[in-house]
Amino acid sequence: MEKKKAVLLLSGGLDSTTLLALATSEGHAIHALSFDYGQRHSVELLAARKIAERYKVLQHLVMKIDMRAFGASALTADIPVPKGRQLDDLKTGIPVTYVPARNTIFLSYALALSEVVGAPEIFIGVNALDYSGYPDCRPEFIAAFERMANLATRAGVESRNEAAVRIRTPLIALSKSEIIELGLRLGVDYSMTTSCYDPTASGEACGTCDACQLRLRGFSEAGADDPALYAVTR
Fold first, then answer.
1. How far is CA 181 from CA 10, 112, 169, 189, in A?
2. What CATH number should be reported for the domain holding residue 71?
3. Which of 95, 96, 99, 146 is the least buried, fewest Cβ under 10 Å from its Cβ?
4. Percentage of the chain with pLDDT > 70?
């Protein structure tokens, strides 16, 4: 039986790797898409390449775009990454690590690739529970983009179905611990993943940025050890 083609946004992080394992287990043949967008480190791209090889994706494209030209984010400009924030504060306001319109841009590239390769589904590992307040991780955004995708593409115009293109977000309503538990059931090797916003030059996670704290809490609540390397003693 021929596998169903799908495009999947692969960052090299915990969520997108779990998503790749899930999509693969569902029988999808994956076209993985990563971005060298001017982020402050290349660790996640190295991880994404290894993960793509591990899951034997059909192809792994790394698109180079320069979002540093816009700046305005701690991930794409010379702005300090917040460290040591209280976890309860992560759900209030939009933090400086938000990259303006990043998911809109990434999904637009994924949409173009899906048309070219004939993949009616696009997977993205957004999460609306344990996230850092990013507006482009919400269900409302995903639903709006899917509507636009079906207006903007040949497949959408020519199809008799209401949704020729689907944006798949299986992790959107899961907590970080639930995502980790799912990944462990699927056999994900989380030592291959990276989540830190500000890792060392050798790739060790800082342990105190928002992403590190959410990851560490998720592993703790899942009753599992985080195999990632950290620059500080935990």
1. 19, 33, 17, 12
2. 3.40.50.620
3. 96
4. 96
